[in-house]
Amino acid sequence: MKKVIVAGFKGRMGNTASHMVxxxxxxxxxxxxxxxxxxxxxxxxxxxxxxDVPVYSKVADIASSTADVWIDFTSxxxxxxxxxxxxxNGISPVVGTTGMTDxxxxxxxxxxxxxxxxxxxxxxxxxxxxxxxxFAQQAAKYFPNVEIIEMHHDNKLDAPSxxxxxxAKLIAEVRxxxxxxxxxxxxxxxxxxxxxxxxxxxxxxxxxGYVAHEQVLFGxxxxxxxxxxxxxxxxxxxxxxxxxxxxxxxYDELLVGLEHIL
Length: 262
Ligand SMILES: NC(=O)C1=CN([C@@H]2O[C@H](COP(=O)(O)OP(=O)(O)OC[C@H]3O[C@@H](n4cnc5c(N)ncnc54)[C@H](OP(=O)(O)O)[C@@H]3O)[C@@H](O)[C@H]2O)C=CC1
Ligand SMILES: O=C(O)C1=N[C@H](C(=O)O)C[C@H](O)C1
Fold this sequence. Notes:
Blueprint: E1 2-7, H1 12-23, E2 27-33, E3 55-56, E4 69-72, H2 79-88, E5 92-95, H3 102-115, E6 119-121, H4 127-140, E7 146-152, H5 162-172, E8 195-197, E9 200-206, E10 212-220, E11 223-231, H6 238-247, E12 254-256
Parallel strand pairs: 1-2, 1-4, 2-3, 4-5, 5-6, 6-12, 7-9
Antiparallel strand pairs: 7-10, 8-9, 10-11
Helix pairs in contact: 2-3, 4-5
The structure holds NADPH dihydro-nicotinamide-adenine-dinucleotide phosphate and ligand LZUJQKHR.
Organism: Liquorilactobacillus capillatus DSM 19910
GO molecular function, one term: NADP binding
Domain Dihydrodipicolinate reductase N-terminal: 3-125
């Protein structure tokens, strides 16, 4: 049995992940954490009736022996400290939270290596998104002109999405930096061309009703290719999270990308 703690359990993803852990035959939910929690046990919430695991509202109250795995779906401003805490306390992090800087990820990787703790940061736990990123990387070898459009619900804090940034990074591995569009182009309204990652433009859409969606558009002489993925429901991320929880302790480093453990 993997003993699991869920950070951010009051949020959209943390709630879904808590249910997944409770329902999984090989996992045991041993605690949940969220700074705005006021209850003592999870079972005080009607939807978790009978699940009397402790609720933590301060990270310092979580003992190092509590859990094997720390699932983190929190916020861009808290994820670094949370994951650092988990690694320092011998708990393997499975991190879905986006918005960390490259420097923060590097530091956590160093720490995990020093402590020989296995962990995973996955910008996206959905298989459709993992495949989209791989297909896009493959296509970019032949179509170096590319723009990314990511579309999310309007409560999302970070832009561009972690998936869009990761897509751009994977494409940049196979594509020389390239300025796209007319060299003389001028934005008459600031931001019209979106963010710019090594010449690739990334556009972020935020709309109610959306969950998580991404399109990668390739254009060439007389032809175009569009790759698209849609996550219509947060349950779509859960099989990826479950694989990560099951396997993460087999490693002794902090990996980035679900594809590394599939
Ligand atoms: N990798 C993937 O496949 C996916 C990743 N995500 C990412 O997961 C993250 C969470 O998304 P979502 O669930 O929609 O966001 P929510 O805002 O719904 O949930 C985040 C929760 O974390 C809480 N929180 C804030 N600070 C801390 C902290 N220090 N410790 C523990 N909990 C904390 C928030 O509380 P409060 O509201 O009071 O701040 C909130 O309850 C985002 O970064 C999102 O991009 C989302 C979907 C899939
Ligand atoms: O905030 C979200 O919802 C999502 N965040 C992740 C991201 O930033 O890429 C993954 C997915 O797109 C959903």
